[in-house]
Amino acid sequence: MLRSMDEKDPYALLGVARTASEDEIRKAYRKLARKCHPDVNPNDRKAEDRFKEISLAYEVLSDTEKRARYDEFGAQSFAQGFDPDQARDYARWSRGARRSPFHESSAADVDVDIEDLLGGLFGAARRARGPAKGADAEGEISIDLLDAVRGGEVRVQVAGRGALRVKIPVGADDGTRIRLAGQGDAGVLGGPPGDLYLTLHVRPHAFLERKGSDLWLDLPVTLPELVLGASIEVPTPDGPVTMKVPARSASGRVLRLRGKGVPKLGGAARGDLYVRLVGELPDPEDPRLEAIAKDLEPLYEGRDVRARLKGTP
What does pTM read for this prediction? Predict the structure, then answer.
């Protein structure tokens, strides 16, 4: 289920075309999330609101069914009780189609059909012999990756039910189903309400990528840190930790932080955090960089850095 988008176009919010592929949409979201994430912009309300908007836009466009409904009907398709089939029928009828969206026969038969319908409804109510539990309801919510990893209580908006506090289990994943007792439809004749079942969708993180129970992080490092080695602070779901970068490391080298990944749902085991070192050049506009690069050229003599790519298509 989805909060109102206030008529804002999710394509415009992410800066992608309506023909954008899933990969293009994901890359656009990750780029904006890195810029607007609350962790990067502490105490910046505008950045926080912007992050919520792009997260909601991604929630729509990353889901094939939601995206198709938005493309066809716009923001109204997420209103409570919206019926796509009835909307299509009404559109055909309003364009002059012979068939009414509410009845297949002539207008003269409408009164009879309505009476039959009401009679059936009230007849069913009269046949109820006592209290009965209300029907269960289904819904969907999107949460941040770190909320899924850490677990805990989050406050979300659920269409038709307003703001709810939902307890997220530690290590939850995309598709995890949560039961909220008594939050379904009202009971009949004083019976208890049904339950609400929410399916979780986990939004991509700006910096961390989840692979099963493991997390991956691209960590920018300087060339001196790669060559000389260094102790570097690394962000993890549990807070920053210090990691040692061995001397003479190559850009792209992967280091592992054991037990800093995702806790396995319902178990005590935990995955690892893999840190990929990404060498960063100094300011490209610095005039000293060109002289340093020329000094390095002799060190590459006799070595083909692209040798492993030969013979590949």
Answer: 0.62
